[in-house]
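Exercise: predict the fold of this chain.
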Amino acid sequence: MYYRGSAAAVIVYDITKLESFQTLKKWVKELKEHGPEDIVVAIAGNKNDLGDIREVPMKEAKEFAESIAAIFIETSARNAVNVEELFQKISKQIPPLQNAEVESNDSFKLTRQPNPTTRRCC
C-alpha cells in the first residue's frame, strides 16, 4: 500500500549505524516484491557530516546500490549536503507522463461554495 502509484522511493540509512544499513536491505526486498515494477529507487546514506564515526563503508553501500540498479548518494540533512542533488537525480530518471495520462478525465474543478444561510430553530 505504501508504494502504490509511486514513481520513486528514497530509502535512507544512517552511515553511523550498520544496523540501519541491514534494515535498508529488508526495505529494498519489500519494495522489489510489492512495489511498482518501474519504480526509481534511491539509496541515501545520511549523516555524512559524521564520517569520523562511520560504520557503513561508502564502497559497500555504493556496490549494493549498483547491484539493484539504484541511485546512490550520501547526504547530510543537518548541513543540507546533497539533498537537492538526490532529488535532481531522481527526477532525471522518472519517465515523463504520457499525454493520455496528463489529459485524463480523472480531474475535478474546485469552486467556492456559497455560504449557507443560517436557520434558527423554532
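Check your answer against the key: The chain has a mean pLDDT of 86.
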